[in-house]
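Q: Structure tokens for this one, please.
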Amino acid sequence: MTVIDILFRVDDICKKYEKYDVDKQRDANSQGDDAFARLYSTVETEVDKALLKAEAALRETNRAAAVAMIAEVRRTKARLKEEYPKLQKLARKK
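A: Here is the predicted structure, written as tokens:
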């Protein structure tokens, strides 16, 4: 079996199991009409941003800047808590 044959077989297998790729499905659903997927991707990106900001606040040497960053993380957390019931409601519908 040649390298070209192996590449073609691997490509066929990847195409066959493409529907199980979580990252591709998430990207495809976020662009579609699915309200749950859109809201979920929005919440997920906000959580990631908040985590990065919290890590930056821990590394910050200026206490005033660190307090401001932590306050912003808390506001983001409160806003996301409001989105959680909406996400649950959409999940039940789906």
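A few notes: The first helix runs from residue 3 to 16. The radius of gyration is 20 Å.
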